[in-house]
Amino acid sequence: MKAVSLLSGGIDSPVALYIMAKKADCAALHMDNSPFGGDGKKVVELVDHISDKIGKKIELYSVPFGEIVQKEIYEKCEERYRCVMCKQMMYRVAEEIGRNEGAEIIVTGENLGQVASQTLQNLMVLEKSVSMPVVRPLIGLDKEEIIDIAKRIGTYELSIKKSKPCTLVPSKPATSATLESIKKEEEKMGAADIVRKAVREARIEKL
């Protein structure tokens, strides 16, 4: 089985990558949010560490997501849908890169309710934006359980290194988006063309 695993510099997604990379051939995919946030150097360190921990190389892809995708979301989408649209576009980019790599699943570090895009309703809508199955190995864990795993595998100290938070988070994010509302936001920003551009600009990072 081959997977593409969405990877931020936070605590959750490296744990999800570690769990799945032991079971599947995983490629990590980082959405570089600059200039709106993020820390690409930390992500490289995380992938290096996880590769060493499981004893096999994990390729790391990086997409200039902030410049190509988030900019369009900020300029053209309704403010309350920014978080859902950001995650939805991550799914779509991951699916296209996954197909190019022969992947069968998308892996994420999502679990229920930690942030606005991870309510049950929003997760259900997000899944409908792609045809590739989405696997969430942390879905039923609480934050303390995830932190315990991160500490055990050695990713916690890397994940908590200071990085720039996202500056586009709305004051009142949508927690119960509908498929119809998301499709309208997609139309406003020309989502299909933006996905294609983001995939073209993806690069493999040297580890």
Write the layout of secondary structure elements.
Layout: E1 2-6, H1 12-21, E2 25-31, H2 40-54, E3 59-63, H3 65-76, H4 82-100, E4 105-107, H5 120-127, E5 134-135, H6 143-153, H7 156-159, H8 179-189, H9 191-200, E6 203-204
Parallel strand pairs: 1-2, 1-4, 2-3, 4-5
Antiparallel strand pairs: 3-6
Any overview of this molecule?
The protein is α/β, with parallel strands linked by helices. The protein has a single domain, classed as HUPs (Rossmann fold). It has helices spanning 12-21, 40-54, 65-76, 82-100, 120-127, 143-153, 156-159, 179-189, 191-200; strands spanning 2-6, 25-31, 59-63, 105-107, 134-135, 203-204. The two termini are 23 Å apart.
Can you tell me the CATH topology? Rossmann fold
The global form is: globular
Catalogue the unreliable spans. none
- Percent of sequence in beta strands: 5-15%
* Oligomerization category of the chains in this entry: single chain
Q: What integer value in Å does the Rg equal? A: 16 Å
- The CATH architecture classification is 3-Layer(aba) Sandwich
Q: What does the main sheet amount to?
A: 6 strands, mixed
Write a short abstract of this structure.
By secondary structure, this protein is α/β, with parallel strands linked by helices.
Features:
207 residues; alpha/beta; Rossmann fold; 6-stranded mixed β-sheet
